[in-house]
Design a protein that fits this description.
The complex is a heterodimer. By secondary structure, chain A is α/β, with parallel strands linked by helices. Chain A contains eleven helices and 13 strands. Chain A is globular, with a radius of gyration of 24 Å. The chains are: A alpha/beta, B mainly alpha. The interface between A and B is medium-sized, with 35 and 28 residues.
Amino acid sequence: MTQIQVDNLCKTFRVPEREGGFRASVRSIFRRRYRQVHAVDHVTFSVERGEIVGFLGPNGAGKTTTLKMLSGLLHPTEGACTVMGHVPWRREPAYLRRISMLMGQRSQLAWDLPALDSFLVHAAVYDLPKRQYQETVEELIDLLDIRDVLKKQVRTLSLGERMKCEICVSLLHRPEVLFLDEPTIGVDITMQARIRAFVADYNKRYGATIILTSHYMADVTALCKRIIVIDHGKILFDGRLDELSARLAPFKVIKIDLDREIDGYDFSSLGDVLLREARKVLLQVPKRATPTITDRLLRELPVLDLTIEDPPIEDVIARAFGQRRSSDENPGGEATAASGKAGKEFP
Amino acid sequence: MRVIARSFLAFLRAAIGVMVQYRGEIFLWAVWGLINPTVLYLMWSAAAESNVDQTLAGFDRGQFAAYYLCIMIIGHFTTAWDAYELGYFIRSGALSPKLLRPILPIWDSLAQNLAYKIVTLAFVAPAWAVFFFFVRPAFEAVPWQVLLGIVAVMMAGALNYLLGYVVALVAFWSPKLDAVGETYFGIAMIFGGRFAPLATMPPILYDIAWVLPFRWMFAFPAELLMGRIASLEAALSGIGIQFAWLAAAIILFRIGWSAAVKRYTAVSG
C-alpha cells in the first residue's frame, strides 16, 4: 500500500546575494540582487507502508528540504504530495499526530528541564491516554537504555544521551511515518549502531514507514534496502541498494597479493590501478571483463592471494555525484558511464 | 478544545519549571517593569507640584500616583515579548520543532507568558504594596469600577498579547525583527498613555490615541481602576471597544498565521 506519493515536487528559494566587501555591501542597500535556488527540482517517488528508504546526497542536495515538505514544514513551489492521504503542508493536526520528524541538529526537548518533563508535554500535546503513555515510555526507556539520564537537565546530557532522548520523545505517539534527518550526526560509532538497531526494531514492531537522510553510509547500508540518491534537487537513482553499484558503477575491484616483487608488468592495460605497492596491487576493472582479467592475472603472475570486491558504496555515490557534476559542466559532451540506462537514474 | 486545554496546562507547568530555575533573571525583568512607571510617576508628580494649582491636565500628585500604580499593575499583566522572540526562533531554526506539533505554537508562547506573570507575581505584588504605602495614591474608584477594571485589565492582557504576536508574524518575512518590535513598543508607550496620561497630550495626538488599540490596553483600564471613568456607560463601551479590537486581532492573527507558515523557509534547520 502506497503511503507516500510525491509527484514533481519542487521548491525554489529566492536567495539574496552580493559580492564580498564594503563597497558591495553599500551597493546592496540600493540594489539587491536575488538568485533562484532550485533546492528540489521535480522530484517524483512513492514509498510503500513499512519501507525504510534512505535519502543520500551531498550537502545542499535537497534531502532535508524534501523531508521538510513531506512533514508539512515547507510549502512547495510546485508539485503534489500526499502522505497517508494527507497533503502535508495543510498541516492538519490529524496528520501531524501520525508523523514525526527527528532533526539531528534541532532539539524538541526543553533545554533547561529533565527530558521526562518534555515527555509529559509531548503526551499532552498528542493527547496520549495515560496508560498508553506509561506503556510506551517504559518500553522506549528500556529499549534506548535511558533510565539513568531522564532526571538530568537536557543541557547537561552528552550528545548521544540527548539524541536517544530526542528519539524517545519523537516516538512517544507511535508515529506511522517517521522522517529522520541525520539522526546519528555527531554521535560516536557505538551509539550510532545502537540508534540504527533501535530504528530497525521500531520499523519491525510497528510497521512504520521511515525516510532517513544521513551522511553516514553505515546508517543507510544497515537500515535501508532502498535508497534514493539526490543531488542538485534531482533524483539520480531510486532503487535497491544492491542495484546501486551495478547501475552506477559497473566495476569490480581486484585485490592482488603477490608472492614476490614484479617489475615491468603493465597493470594499467587491464584496468585502473588504484594502488601499486611492492607486492600489493588494487585494480579496478569493468565488471564484464572480470573473469578474463582474473584468469590472466592468475596465469601470468605469482599470485599469493586474490579477492574480487564491489567498490565501496561511498565511492559509488561519490562517483555518481562526480559524473553528475561533469555532465552539468559539459552538457553536450560525451555521455557518462551511467547515463542512458533504463530506470530511475540520471534523468 | 480539550486537547488545547491539556496541552496549555502542560506547557504552563513546563514553563513555570524553567522560570523557577532562572528566578534571578526573572526577578530582574520584574524589577525593570517597576522602574519605568516609578520614574514617570516621580517626573509627572514633580511637574504637577510645580504648577500653582499643583495639578497637571487634571491630575494632582495623588492621582498621578494612582495612575502609575495602575499602569505598573497593568504593565505586568500585559507584558509580552513575542515581537522580539519569534524572529530569533525563525533565524535559529528553533521554530521548526514547534511547527511539527499538532498544536499552534502560539499556545506554547502564551503559556510561557502566563508562567512569567504567575512566577513574578511573588516579586511584584509586594513591590506594588510598598509603592502604595509610600506614595499614597488617590483612588476614587467604587466597587463596580474596580470589578469592570479587572475585566478591562484581563482584556488588555489578551489584546496586547495577541497584537504583539501579530506584529511578531512580520518575522516570517523579515526575521530580524528587533527594530519592528521596538517601534511597536514605542508607539504603544506613547499612544497607550504609559509615558504620560493621555489628558496631557496635544489634542491631535489625543484624537489619534482614540482610534488606535493602545489606549484600550493601558490608559483605559488604568483610568477605570482609579475611578476616573465615572459613568457605567463609558466603562462598558470601553470594554466593548476592547472586545472589538480583540476580535480584530484574532482575525488578523488567523490571516497572518496562514500566510506566514506558507512563507516559512525553515532557516537553518
